[in-house]
Amino acid sequence: MTRFLSKNSRTVGLAALLALLLVATKLIQPDFGASGLESLARAVLPFAFATVGMTIVVIAGGIDLSMAAMMAVASVTAAVLMEGASDGQAAIAVLGVLVLGLVMGAINGTLIVLTRVPDIVVTLAMLFVWQGVALLILNAPGGGAAPWLRDLVVGGVVLPGLPTALTEWLPKAVLFLVIAVALIWVPIRRSRLGLMLYAIGSDQLAAFRSGIPVGLTRIVAYALAGLFAALGGLSVTMGTGIGEPIPGPYLMASVAAVVLGGVVLGGGRGGIVGPVLAVFILRLVRMDLTLLSVDPNVTAIIEGTITVAVVMFGGLLAVRGMQK
To answer: How many whole angstroms separate alpha carbon 122 and alpha carbon 165?
Structure first.
């Protein structure tokens, strides 16, 4: 137990902070209960998927500024394809959107590898490209979502044999997030591909000399980010029932959560659990400010200050790490 706590001290600390914030939320709003937790989970879901995708890219030594725009493309594509579709057609549409996410991410990675232009420049340019694609598909919020798809994230989990009052405290959105991340990331993390992602993030030259295909691995990292962006876009459509063509505030929130979750901006170090806990913490802070009736403009200032402070701190740690 001591070894586990020392090895995962950052994650344990974030979990404890999240628990304290939930207690504070209950004190601020005594009516906060299972329904409030479920609303929080649904609001966090797209941010969490964006954070997981960004985490993988950062671990591999890069960054993707087009994350929110890819989510918008996935959201509107899913909404357009599912409007008036049968359950079977909607399932095919979901698979198609996931493949679309992989393709968008792979395009980002391929451009970075072939042009050798810094990833921050390429993905900034692709942000505008994907944003334009989203607006071409749907120039205003609209479309629809299959009822069975919305049921995956709305409400609490119902388990046979257990009291509803107990299981409703586990939101479906959280279960959906855990299952999706576990199915995709856990097998990769335990495979040679996972080792290669960490290796190129730690030292690309050393990874190349070890026989790792650096370019291909970077493309795979961005493709995985695109896949999670597609999941994030789908979760937007699942939560609202429509497609959103305008990219949401997911980019900087995901970067802040990645850094707060213990992932080094230089790459090669960090995990998935910490950033996911961090994104819950950041969204819960926003909820608490809203419950305290803080002016929305002041809330935006506080959120921006926290984001800037976290990102600057992470950048400072990355620079110090490179100097050692």
So the answer is: 49
Q: With beta carbons less than 8 A apart as the criterion, state whether 82 and 287 touch.
A: no
Average pLDDT over residues 94-118: 95
**Displacement of CA 117 from its chain's centroid (Å):** 25
Q: What tens digit of pLDDT does each residue of 168-201 get?
A: 678 889 999 999 999 999 999 889 999 999 999 9
DSSP category for residue 269: -
Count of beta carbons in the 10 Å neighbourhood of residue 162: 11
CB-based contact 107:229 (threshold 8 Å):
no
Q: Which two tokens stand for residue 293?
A: 């009736």
State the distance between the two ends of the chain, measured CA to CA, in whole angstroms: 31
**Single-letter amino acid code for the residue at 204:** Q
- Alpha-carbon distance of 96 to 170, in angstroms, equals 29
The residues pairing with 142 across neighbouring beta strands, listed in sequence order, are 243
Which amino acid would we find at residue 225?
A
* Residue 174: Cβ-neighbour burial (10 angstroms; 0-12, 13-18, 19+): buried
Give CA–CA dist 41/23, Å, rounded: 16
List all residues 6 or more positions away from 293 whose beta carbon is below 8 Å from its beta carbon.
none
- Sequence-separated (6 or more) residues with CB below 8 Å from residue 238: 45, 145, 149, 150, 152, 153, 154
243 φ, ψ (degrees, to nearest 5): -95, 145
Which pLDDT tens digit goes with each residue over 238-280?
A: 988 899 898 888 988 898 899 888 888 778 888 899 999 999 9
Task: Kindly give the interhelix angle for 67-82 and 119-137, rounded to the nearest 10 degrees.
Answer: 20
| Structure-block tokens of residue 120 | 């921050």
The percentage of the chain sitting over the pLDDT mark of 90, rounded to a whole number, equals 48
